[in-house]
Amino acid sequence: MQVCKTNRRIRVAGLKSIFVLARKSYDWVLHWAETPYAVWALFILAFAESSFFPIPPDVLLIAVAISMPKRSFYFALVCSAASVFGGALGYLIGLKFMEAVGYSIINFYGYNELFLNLQSLFKKYDIWFVGMAGFTPVPYKVFTIAAGACKLNFLKFMITSIVSRSARFFLVGTMIYIFGEPVKSFIDKYFNLLTVLFFVLIALGFVVIKYLF
User: Fold this and answer.
1) Which residues in 15-101 belong to E strands, given as ranges?
2) Res 23 pLDDT > 60
3) DSSP secondary structure letters along the chain
4) Within a domain: residue 106?
5) How many independent structural domains does the chain possess?
6) 208 vs 162: which has the higher pLDDT
7) Residue 13 falls within a domain, yes or no?
8) Does the residue 27 lie in any domain?
9) 3 pLDDT more than 60
10) 152: domain range?
């Protein structure tokens, strides 16, 4: 009984640590929205997330867009363009620098199994998986690196990235343009629940990849 209680406390403590870390990361990203470098920070974050950085740019996109709702579509454009360029860097890493850099990124995030699955899935479904990853919460960086490693057609890769990433970020921009501040208030109020939901969506994405394809 005591062992069970101890294990339960460990699990609860671990879950709290995840929430604290996620909250700190969220707040760190948000603080850029209050600086004169907000647009550059958005560009850099979106660029980096597509090739190696873990935090999705949606968080900063929402914060920046809320500060100026009428420019939401401009911010969505910046985010989309940066993400596409970042995806091109991920493709280049997979194509030319897999041994030197690519495997280190994959290993760091623990996506080894996903990366191996993608290599076979790309052979069967080609560029469609890039489009799925570009629009959903699954880690886009793994898909861009894997696309380069598998030598997918670069032009198709870029077109698919442009369409999928733009669809995702312009959807966020449209929500902010229409609803504004309530979106951020909702995130702040239900942050822990949304954090769990985010990881659940990622896990479901992995399940879809593993069992349906």
Assistant:
1) none
2) yes
3) -HHHHHHHHHHHHHHHHHHHHHHHHHHHHHHGGGSTTHHHHHHHHHHHHTTT--S-THHHHHHHHHHSGGGHHHHHHHHHHHHHHHHHHHHHHHHH-IIIIIHHHHHHHT-HHHHHHHHHHHHHHTTHHHHHHHHSSS-HHHHHHHHHHTT--HHHHHHHHHHHHHHHHHHHHHHHHHH-HHHHHHHHHTHHHHHHHHHHHHHHHHHIIIII-
4) yes
5) 1
6) 162
7) no
8) no
9) no
10) 32-212
